[in-house]
């Protein structure tokens, strides 16, 4: 039985929650709807929600007049390489830290973990000097290499592997399987949930990464999506507003779809590791 | 099969006992061969830069020295003393401190409220709210900035038009130095509370329900249950949330870069943004010193939060 108090309480709760949802999701809806409005309507006072004239003109300009297909492709290339690298390198080290006994193991783990506290700005300047001196400025290698081995992934894979029983690995060892065979055939398949979480989070971080490509990519053909969008919105070559909104949709939509499809793995990953 | 296994294991055991040194050696080789790929990249692109940054911070290195690293001079702590005489750095430090001191509690409060509301037994559509509130966390800051700059536009913006409907003349949020930092704080809270909410939700779901039943039997109301049961049991999650939000907010950079470029009148200039500027001017030694000051601040804030929030666990 619901008491009157429950009903009042529930109404207040729904009011607050839907209010919050409007504040959080509203701007995204407005962005999506307005990207289909003619420029004059976007600028109209007072602003409108629903487009009075639907037009795909901004998207057409984005892909035909500006080089957005190139930026999109660059973002995909960088994110895929960074994700693949992290999945491989972090699971290798995570396995070694969790299941193999070797000299220097503890020290290595503490150093990698300590790196989580180091602010990006401490690394930023020397990384730039390094990449420039290696001749990798304005190259895919320069965009990817500094992000291939992230401490967060090691932490995540190690924590996950600690919960895998030793017996399984020990049994394979007794059967005479080599350590690499054990890793590929037994450990990696067991890690699928952790790899999924790490893969999604890494891809997302790389897709949204902004500062490093802004500094390293110096010509148009190496820009990633966020860099292009930022330069078009605050740089000297400002473009009109409808185009920016359409650009923002192109940046957001892929991660939005991935997030909505895989939200369970996503949120579980955040909750268990506590990091984004 | 079992016998074979036992024999094989016995043979391995015997050979290992015969040469304990060889076995230790083999373990080291195996372990490091797994660790090597990551470690190599990590040393080159993370560990080396951390050390290089420290070394650069005690030199007068500039971008023109890039190709001639031996042309730089040792200047001791000169960069560090200059930092604290630099009016812009001091301004940036104050702005960053305000951002952290106001922004961290605000984000935690929003996340706590959202987590408790979503977790309440009265609510349907839990998944919808959870996903909705998390949306800004996965979104590119550059895209968010495009939308928010428009929302906060003094004339055509949604916010001021809504305010006008209730008869309030809204300010020029981002162009007025009195409201610019506040706008950035609200935007950062909006963007980040979702990730803390997910962590808090996990903590809430770990609280045994019979504790609430016992509290109800003892005559505790909703608010008292929240104060006496929920909050104390959430302390580890709150501590964790405060520490990671503090670490993140101390590094405030992207929001002012894409929203205000540090202006107007340096009212949204942050320490990280100042470092980025100095890097842009080519002052690598000076920028590195500022980065290390930020690093120390992060370690200090984390230690402080552990003391303040963690200490009461001993009760």
Model description:
The complex is a heterodimer of chains A (276) and B (315). Chain A has 276 residues and is mainly alpha-helical. Chain A has two domains: 4-56, no CATH class; 60-273, MetI-like fold (Orthogonal Bundle). Chain A contains 15 helices and no strands. Chain A has helices at residues 4-34, 39-42, 57-64, 68-99, 105-114, 120-133, 140-144, 151-162, 166-174, 179-190, 192-208, 211-216, 225-234, 241-261, 263-273. The radius of gyration of chain A is 24 Å and the shape is globular. The model of chain A has no long low-confidence stretch (mean pLDDT 88). Chain B is an all-alpha fold. Chain B folds into two domains: 17-71, no CATH class; 78-314, Orthogonal Bundle (MetI-like fold), CATH 1.10.3720.10. Chain B has helices at 2-18, 20-56, 78-85, 87-119, 126-134, 141-151, 158-165, 180-205, 209-217, 222-233, 235-250, 254-259, 271-280, 284-310. In chain B, α4 crosses α13. Chains A and B meet through α1, α4, α5, α6 and α11 of A and α1, α2, α4, α5 and α6 of B.
Keywords:
heterodimer, A: 276 residues, mainly alpha, MetI-like fold, 2 domains, 15 helices, B: 315 residues, 73% helix, 0% strand
Put the structure in a nutshell.
The complex is a heterodimer of chains A (276) and B (315). Chain A has 276 residues and is an all-alpha fold.
